[in-house]
Specification:
Length: 502
């Protein structure tokens, strides 16, 4: 695809409801697509000049041999309340990472498609699509959650339905995605370079990290290092890895330990989670469905929001069930379905001058006082809080990090913890003066000094506190931090109390 020359493709075009200045877009609009990745893969990293020469040449992209992706199952822990008890659920997410040259192609074409998609949003409205986009005024999930809760407070009397789409990335129908891609470009068929990228995203093969460990008899190389080394040489890849390659589509559902949704009807579907282009393709796939749902919910005098696979409906009392059916109907048209187990339904109303939230069942019969959860936050009509499961996951990770530091101290014969990184990552103390005056400053673009960790969960919590102004979030911060300090103190005291070996 040429960005600066004329489009000489004379094939019949789709009638487009949008006007896109296609193929006459300057490179300046795609700044930021190149990023050197530090992980090791089957190829070696390439420079920006090499990557630019590749991605801006349609013929090279069309004939590019994409490497298999490496699938690294990521453990995700969630928590929910059932009959007054906390129930923990662990699942594996099939996250992939692509080869270096492939990632640059995906990132560049993500910029191309993203620009075209934003042009469509600007003409037909895209305020309902929240994830994977850049807004004139930078916003994140904290801002989106606050806006939704403020709307509920303003309406007072309303019903709220929070819906999770089942197997979102892993269930996107390839034929439907191909059609949406062609319509975005106003083409009857995809240009050869775009089709090559489409095939790489939908007909890819994969190998898991555990399989690679088995192949090479232990831990594999995880970082390229200064020399930019690959996991193995091409000859070794062909001899040892290639026989173990499998269809990513089948591998994904094995990793998730569940059958593919019935709505897929056994057809290959899904795009990899983790590619630079995956997010844009998800929004592209949903474009017409988003508009249809938005207009239908507006006819009920309600509002519709979608953040990736999280959908939120805010409608007048008595319209919740109708709104939920609208979403189910529209999702079915694109071979997707609702995860009924994760659907949250609440009815808000004022009682004795106080806004309250009452949970309702799937028939919208009232149950008990509850709160609506959205994008990591909960709201019960009075208080906005960080979701309990989000905090619980952080506390688990914090305790593991502290325990690792304690074990390291024992192995080194030390009687004190090395607390600098623990304080930086696990509390609100941040860098302080621990790493000198040259620590990362986003406004100046400084990089972290060697050994300095990135700021962790408390940076996010402080942002949430600042944006929402919630006293409940402020209280949660104090409670979490106190618990972390107690864990660190307890771990260090256990070191001091252990017997000294002879």
């Amino acid at each position: 695809m040429s960005l600066d020359g004329d489009d000489t493709d004379k094939r019949p075009q789709h009638a487009c409801s949008h006007r896109i200045p296609r193929y006459r877009i300057t490179m300046d609009e795609y700044l930021g697509w190149y990023r050197r990745r530090s992980y090791a893969h089957f190829d070696r990293p390439i420079s920006e000049a090499q990557a630019r020469a590749l991605v801006t040449n349609p013929k090279l992209v069309s004939s590019h041999a994409f490497w298999p992706v490496i699938l690294n199952p990521q453990k995700s822990v969630s928590m929910k309340e059932e009959h007054g008890y906390r129930v923990w659920n662990t699942k594996l997410r099939p996250i992939v990472f692509a080869a270096h040259s492939d990632s640059h192609i995906y990132a560049y074409y993500a910029k191309v498609l993203g620009k075209f998609l934003e042009d469509k949003y600007s003409l037909q409205g895209g305020e309902h699509v929240l994830a994977y986009r850049r807004f004139p005024r930078p916003r994140c999930n904290v801002h989106f959650a606050l806006e939704a809760f403020e709307e509920i407070k303003k309406k007072e009397s309303c019903e709220v339905v929070a819906i999770d789409v089942e197997g979102f990335f892993d269930s996107l129908n390839h034929q439907q995605l191909n059609l949406a891609w062609k319509q975005l470009l106003c083409k009857d068929r995809l240009p050869d370079d775009h089709y090559a990228v489409f095939k790489a995203c939908t007909q890819d093969t994969a190998v898991t990290v555990p399989t690679l460990r088995d192949i090479f008899g232990g831990e594999i190389k995880r970082r390229t290092g200064i020399s930019g080394e690959a996991i193995c040489a091409p000859k070794e890849f062909r001899a040892r890895v290639k026989p173990h390659l499998r269809s990513r589509h089948k591998l994904v559902w094995e990793v998730k330990r569940k059958p593919a949704p019935a709505c897929l009807k056994g057809l290959p579907a899904g795009i990899p989670q983790g590619l630079p282009i995956s997010a844009v393709l998800a929004n592209l796939y949903f474009y017409d469905t988003d508009l249809a749902i938005r207009e239908s919910i507006r006819s009920l005098d309600g509002s519709y929001r979608r953040y990736s696979d999280d959908i939120l409906l805010i409608v007048p009392k008595g319209q919740g069930k109708a709104a939920e059916l609208i979403v189910q109907k529209e999702l079915k048209k694109i071979q997707l379905q609702v995860n009924q187990e994760k659907t949250i339904r609440c009815r808000f109303g004022v009682t004795n001058g106080v806004l309250r939230s009452i949970s309702v069942d799937r028939h919208f019969k009232e149950q008990n006082l509850s709160s609506v959860a959205y994008l990591g936050f909960t709201f019960d009509g009075q208080h906005l809080r960080v979701r309990d499961s989000t905090i619980a996951r952080f506390v688990i990770k914090a305790k593991r990090a502290i325990e690792r530091a304690r074990i390291a101290a024992v192995e080194n014969g030390e009687f004190r913890l090395k607390k600098r990184q623990l304080y930086t990552q696990l509390t609100s103390l941040g860098y302080g003066q621990a790493y000198g005056n040259g620590v990362y400053d986003q406004t100046r673009g400084n990089i972290l000094p060697k050994g300095a960790p990135r700021l962790g969960f408390f940076k996010y919590l402080r942002l949430a506190e600042r944006v929402t102004g919630s006293a409940a979030v402020c209280k949660q911060i104090r409670q979490i931090e106190n618990e972390v300090f107690r864990e660190i103190d307890g771990a260090e005291k256990s070191l001091g109390n252990r017997p000294v070996s002879a």
